[in-house]
Design a protein that fits this description.
Mean pLDDT: 90
Number of helices: 11
Shape: globular
Order of helices and strands: HHHEEHEHEHEHHEHEHEH
Helix content: 40-55%
Structural class: alpha/beta
Strand order of the largest sheet: 4-3-5-2-6-7-1-8
Radius of gyration: 22 Å
Distance between the termini: 63 Å
Strand content: 5-15%
Low-confidence stretches: 230-246
Amino acid sequence: MAVTLEQAQRVGCVCLKALLRFAFMVANNLVAIPSYVLYLIMLQPLRVLDSQSFWYIEGVLFKWLLAMVASWGWWAGYTVVEWGDDVNAVSEDEAMVLVNHQATGDVCTLMMCLQDKGTVVRQMMWLMDHIFKYTNFGIVSLIHGDFFIRQGRAHRDQQLVLLKEHLEKYYRSRNRKWIVLFPEGGFLRKRRETSQAFAKKNNLPFLKHVTLPRLGATQVILETLVAPQENGTPAGGGAVIRESKSKGLQWVIDATIAYPKGEPLDIQTWILGYRQPTVTHVHYRVYPVKDVPAEPEALTHWLYQRFIEKEDLLTHFYETGAFPPPQGQTKAISREMTLSNLWLVGIQSFAFLSGGMWYCIFQYFYHCLF
């Protein structure tokens, strides 16, 4: 089949746009990430004198970095529509966020849709695969205090011990509020077949749009971060985890990400922007932590039920293009989240100005020394 001139021009435009976007992303990383690191090096005396103020500033810089990533998708026309519970109501409380995992674009989507949720982004902690430690953003996540978890049965017990130690050391000392994890333990396309085989063997529901979650990290987070009961004894055993007036994890947010036609965005698409403008849909359901059972078998069942509900939500979405209404209501209400282009331009400008400033400083000292 012959390629028409119009088709060739269209392909050429897409390739040129992708090349320019890639160049911008590289430049963005080259100025923003070193600037983040250098600012925090310069602020080390403040960390000693007033650690709370230091981690506040670090959180603001961290939020701006994630906003830069969000801007790559936003300016390509990749937007987000939100459904279900309004999580702004719990943005100042401690919460665990359970997310289904389809592709690398899931993380970018969360970076975008959480930008307008108050202080959430600057006070959040991520649990992510250890491979991300070796990406361009790895140094940022290491400084911020995210946890890199190594997958696989051989590492599982050790990783859970390390996670508990990490939470005890960094979560409260750095004033973290939300902790985000992907309980499926991998991408849908990689885990689906194994999950379905496990479900068949154990007489569990057959899932196509999600996989059965793993318990380990969720259980450790609940055991470590939920406040003790009012009588002073820790929640545990066969009891139900209870809310406390003291500081502690108060909510579990079940977030379900859905892409049109079940075609997820990946990080390459997010950066290069070669896909047509796409609306990603995110559904939230918020559970009080007091409703979450603590005993492992009951918690496993509770967690499985959340992902069975996700399966139902996604099935409805792929059939109708919308999430179903909440129980007892006749219509589901969606909310289009927005980002300010002026704010994004301001953050990008600050990054490039900072990069120029640090370059001039290094040039000055280089000439003074040599």
